[in-house]
Amino acid sequence: MPSRATLLRLLQRAATLSGLDRQPAFAGAEVPVIVVGPRRIAALNRAFLGHAGPTDVIAFALPPPVSGLPPEAGPRCAGELYVNPAAALAEAPRHGQSAAAELTLYIVHGLLHLAGHDDLAPAPRRRMRAAERRVMAGLRRDFDLDALWDWGGGEKQKAERRKQKAESRKRKDGKPRPSALVGCRRSGSSNPEL
Q: For strand 29-30 and strand 76-77, is the pairing parallel, antiparallel, or unpaired?
């Protein structure tokens, strides 16, 4: 998994390329990206957009804050993006790209909505798709998108490799070799089995 700083750089670059950082309502503000599953995004989709079922991304522009908030209240939140990685995993093969690129596209799509783009009618949709391609090209130049996201599949593959190593350590009678400590965690404990 990449560092938080790397992800923030990606999001800041995406905000710049999308034009969001030039919108007065978003100057000096934050836009959190919230990762949710299909059920949660379906509930948001139904509650706020009146659509049934899950979707890939939902963008919310938030109203300006109440005036007079002290600076120690922290940065202003000007919007929120909810992204659904399960949709990226399902859709990426259909679009001929990695799930990481697909998820990044969802974030870009949401940022473009916050920047004022619309995709309901054909002409604005074409402009939005062109903006998506431009922003994604810029992000691909600056970042290795596939290295940014851990899909859990990596964890599944690691578990499979651990299992294969454990199998290779077994003696012919099926018992583990005495030197093999498979699955042990040492987190400050003197007990190697914890």
A: parallel
What would the DSSP string read from start to end of 102-128? HHHHHHHHHHHHHTT---SSHHHHHHH
List C-alpha distances in Å: 60 to 33, 45, 111, 174.
Answer: 11, 11, 10, 57
For residues 69 and 29, the answer to whether their CB atoms sit within 8 Å is no
Q: How many CB atoms lie within 10 A of CB 43?
A: 12
CB of 10 closer than 8 Å to CB of 104: yes
How much is the pLDDT for 6?
Answer: 86
| DSSP letter (8 states) at residue 184 | -
β-sheet bridge partners, residue 59: 81
List the chain residues with pLDDT less than 70.
1-2, 65-75, 150-194
From the number of C-beta atoms within 10 Å of its C-beta (0-12, 13-18, 19+), residue 4 rates as exposed
Q: Which tokens is 181 given?
A: 């400590």
Instruction: Provide the whole-model pTM.
Output: 0.73
CATH class of 4-66+73-148: alpha beta
